[in-house]
Amino acid sequence: MHKSAFFAALCLVAIELPGTAQAQAAPSPVNDDPAAQAVISLEHWRESRIPTFMNDFGELNRYRTANAELKTVAPVENRVVFFGDSITDAWKLDTYFAGKGYINRGIGGQTTPQMLIRFRQDVIDLSPKVVVILAGTNDIAGNTGPMTVDEIEANYASLAELARAHSIRVVFSSVTPIHNYAPQRQTMFLQRSPEKILELNRWLHTYCEQNKLVYLDYYSAMVDGRGMMKENLADDGLHPNDAGYRVMAPLAEAAITKALAQ
User: Fold this and answer.
1) SS3 of 145, please?
2) Fewest CB atoms less than 10 Å from the CB: which of 31, 102, 169, 176?
């Protein structure tokens, strides 16, 4: 038998050995590893966002028309912009701040690099007196790639410096806690380290004190004795439900009042 034919036959025998097909079909250990599942879930989500990341990374198109329409109406005294990610995006401000006319500029899934890109369009150009910034949880999760806490803090500082350069008073909100009390919430929980949330909140508090900004502490009002989001405040472990927003609203109102008085 020719040497090449001999090796081909060996390969064919190896492929057809009993048990080989079963071994190939055996479940991966990843299926039983919540941490690995969290990584895979994030990778799939990021893959789904490739068209957005490639064509409009900051998602400037989301509010472009609304911003243009806003400029055609008479400016509101003491205009306030709520600027953030999905927690802000889902917040029906007219319901929780009736008659205030607060402006929502939240976009689900965003990180501080994306928010920096749209800060001029969605905040500065609207000439608010106050901007309430709530971010960070998606940075910790790595929605737009791995980020260190130092990198997140640098982006926060850039947002504050841009605002102050345009006489906009800044309210920095703490990153909200998260829980995994329901098994299906484990993936989202594992993407957001409670230790990093605490570290980032400590920095935000200190930065606000050092730079005379207002620190809005949602975290302390929403965390339970185990360092998790109170279960009744977020059905999915991360995003506040009605009860959660009702805890947040008066805290936000008090922070806005304090910022306006500065």
Assistant:
1) strand
2) 31
| Of 9-18, 78-87, 152-161, minimum mean pLDDT range | 9-18
Residue 255 contacts residue 171 (beta carbons within 8 Å)? yes
The reported pTM is 0.83
Query: What pLDDT score was predicted for residue 160?
Result: 98
Q: Say whether 2 sits in a helix, a strand or coil.
A: coil
CB 91 within 8 A of CB 102: no
The C-alpha atoms of residue 196 and residue 136 are separated, in whole angstroms, by 10
Nearest to 191 by CA among 121, 246, 137, 258: 137
Answer with the residue of higher pLDDT: 44 or 171.
Answer: 171
User: Running DSSP on this structure, what letter comes out for residue 223?
Assistant: B
Q: What superfamily in CATH does domain 34-261 come from?
A: SGNH hydrolase (3.40.50.1110)
What is the identity of the amino acid at 119?
A: F
